Amino acid sequence: RKNIIVDTIYFEGCSSPDGNYLSNYNLARDRTASFRSYVSNAHRIGHLPGRDRDSWRVATWAEVADSMEADGRRNPALAHYIDWANQMRQVCEGIEVFDDQTKKVYGLPFYAQLKKEGYFDRFRTTAYTLVYTENKLREIDQIQKIYHDSKSIDDLHSYEVWQLYQAEPDT
User: Fold this and answer.
1) Helix axes 98-106 and 80-92, enclosed angle (nearest 10)
2) Of 20, 63, 83, 138, which has the maximum CB count within 10 A?
3) Could you tell me the end-to-end alpha-carbon distance of the chain, in angstroms, rounded to an integer?
4) Rounded CA separation 68/81 (Å)
5) How many CB atoms lie within 10 A of CB 135?
6) Tally of CB atoms within 10 A around 128
7) What is the rounded distance in angstroms from the CA atom of residue 146 to the CA atom of residue 52?
8) Is the pLDDT reported for residue 2 higher than 70?
9) CB atoms within 10 A of CB 20
């Protein structure tokens, strides 16, 4: 038998770079909060530890280009994506401001096709990381021995203290 204790769970949200940076950032933040709320409500968990570690971000055009290149290398039918990825990198090169990069990407001849195909959807994601402790539950005879040897409940989990109490005969 095992006992799982959730130490923390934190959520990560991402939005595509397609659109205004601030709007996308807010979408990623809201997506993260909605996912946390959904998990909490679906599993009837009042408080999920780790909210302070939640994160959200906007995917970059460089990530889109890397994804397109990978798709082009994996699938010969999409080999043209490699050239498109290079064009995307070229128009964004040296431009620091995200929204200025976006304007340049909008001017690329293949941008409308990517949008129509829903290519940017893959960057609209949520994920979670669950950190937990797994304890093997001790049998009552082990619990009683620990208690007998130490004369203290300090080395026992609260569940084990309860098991010890339940095992005592009524007097």
Assistant:
1) 140
2) 138
3) 30
4) 5
5) 14
6) 16
7) 37
8) no
9) 13
Reading the block at residue 94, the tokens are 């040296």
| Cα-based angle 72, 27, 100 (whole degrees, multiple of 5) | 60
If you search the block for the tokens 């340049």, which residue do you land on? Answer: 104
The answer to whether the beta carbons of residues 135 and 7 sit under 8 Å apart is no
Structure tokens at 131: 């950190």
pLDDT on residue 11: 92
Residue with tokens 């971000």: 57
pLDDT digits 0-9 by tens, 41-92: 887 776 766 777 899 999 999 999 999 999 999 999 999 999 999 999 999 9
Rounded Cα distance, 56 and 18, in Å: 16
C-alpha to C-alpha distance for 72 and 69, rounded to whole angstroms: 5
* Per-residue pLDDT tens over the stretch 121-167: 999 999 999 888 887 778 889 888 888 888 888 878 777 888 888 88
Q: Which long-range contacts (CB under 8 A, 24 or more apart) does 50-54 make?
A: 50/8, 50/9, 50/10, 50/131, 51/10, 53/8, 53/10, 54/10, 54/11, 54/12, 54/13
Which residues are 125's β-sheet partners? 14
User: Which amino acid appears at position 59 of this protein?
Assistant: A
Give the residue carrying structure tokens 């959807």: 121
State how far the Cα of 171 lies from the Cα of 163, in Å rounded to an integer.
17
Please give the residue that has the higher pLDDT: either 88 or 10: 88
